[in-house]
Amino acid sequence: MSLGSLILKLQQNYQHGLGTAYYRDIVRNKILSSLPVKGNTSKECEIHVLTSASDWLNLVWTLKSFYHFSQRQYALCIHDDGTLTEENITTLQYHFPEARIINRKQADEKVLPLLSSYPHCLEFRKTNHLSPKVFDFAAYLQSDRLLLLDSDILFFKEPTELLNRIEKPEYKFNSLNADVQSAYTVDPETVKNHLGFHLADRINSGLGLIHKDSLNFAWIEEFLSLPNIIGHFWRIEQTIYALCSSRFGVELLPLAYDVHLEGSINGSPSRHYVGKIRHLMYREGICHLVKNRFLEEIK
């Protein structure tokens, strides 16, 4: 490695300070010494997550903090984006022994034929690496209710209102966390003019309750025909969830679940550490959990 490359690597590793690097590179690995989470077979709701070789360790923190503080045993399905190694999969299976882990080849063989009658959906599934978060979650869902969960979320106490909405049989809305602002590839006026319904503001597809009936492939085929909808590679997946939820019926989760780029945990049950604040997942979130004896409690 050249001196220039070494300097660049050091700058990248330590750009958010030594504390962040310590919790990211040393403390984060300690969760792999914790006990497996067993008994997650309840089909009252099923958790679906999409992960990668770069995110799977964060996902272990996400899932273990959720299961610990929620004290629920929702079934779990982990989807490989195609980059997980055999070692990654073995480790995930050890920590979540009842989980279904779906590798990308296996998913392609199941999902692509399901989309053969939906050409826009099929093309999107083939070309967007986040598209399994829509189609594969729907195809593999074995419950009427899905807990949508990203691998950059940590839980700090019981997410009471989220659980209430999941477990209340008469609750018929999708319910997701609110983004800082609307981040879609279509505007509400286009949706209203072409589809005849209102596109809800600020839906973030990182955390929430999704009803199986709202992930309707015929709807998504219609949505993908909107003018210029194929835009920013990650906003399009979020846009599809927003469109499905808006047509089906949606409510945002309470303020405490909102994505926020400023401030701290401040008593919230969870925090979504989106890209701009990913470093805080280590320096703030994991640090907070460790200082409150989370690792000792899950051993």
Automatic annotation (TrEMBL):
<protein>
    <recommendedName>
        <fullName>Glycosyl transferase</fullName>
    </recommendedName>
</protein>
<dbReference type="InterPro" id="IPR029044">
    <property type="entry name" value="Nucleotide-diphossugar_trans"/>
</dbReference>
